[in-house]
Amino acid sequence: MIEHELGVIVELGVRTGVSTVAWLYGLPKHGRLFSVDIDPQPDLPDDPRWTFVQGDDTHPDTIAQLPARADIVFIDTSHDYHHTARELELYRWMVKRGGMIICHDTELEHPEGVVGPPYPWARY
After folding, report:
1. What CATH number has the domain bearing residue 48?
2. Can you list the residues of the chain whose pLDDT is less than 70?
């Protein structure tokens, strides 16, 4: 459990913005949410606490647009084993002491569009 007020969240994977809206709803007024997706920004209401970055979340140019440290890194992208392993390698350094990495959809036996063994997230 995080025992301090959240300041910075990095969200990998936005799609239609359902999780983005949830993060913003729970974020304090001085907090910041940085969301990354390869697809264009979804049509969401403007919020000064939110920064959208379009790009590949494993590319150095994309990572350079994000904060150096975060309280939470939320991973909800391709659900492919190799891509997820790369994200975990790249983003674990970003998490502040007492923070966390949260992985979404770990219970999916066969995520949409992913070819390979069942439960790719849980294999890591």
Report:
1. 3.40.50.150
2. 1-6, 107, 109, 111, 114, 119-124
Per-residue model confidence as pLDDT tens digits over 69-101? 999 999 999 878 888 889 999 999 999 999 999
Burial class (CB in 10 A: 0-12, 13-18, 19+), 19: middle
Q: Give residue 112's pLDDT.
A: 76
In this prediction the pTM is 0.87
Query: Structurally, how many domains does the chain consist of?
Result: 1
**CA-CA distance, 46 to 27, in Å (whole number)?**
15
CA atoms within 13 A on the CB side of 98: 8
What is the CA 46 to chain-centroid distance, rounded?
19
Residue 38 falls inside a structural domain: yes
Phi-psi region of 105 (alpha: psi -120 to 50; beta: other; left: phi over 0): left
Is 62 part of a structural domain of the chain? Answer: no
Is residue 99 situated within a structural domain?
yes
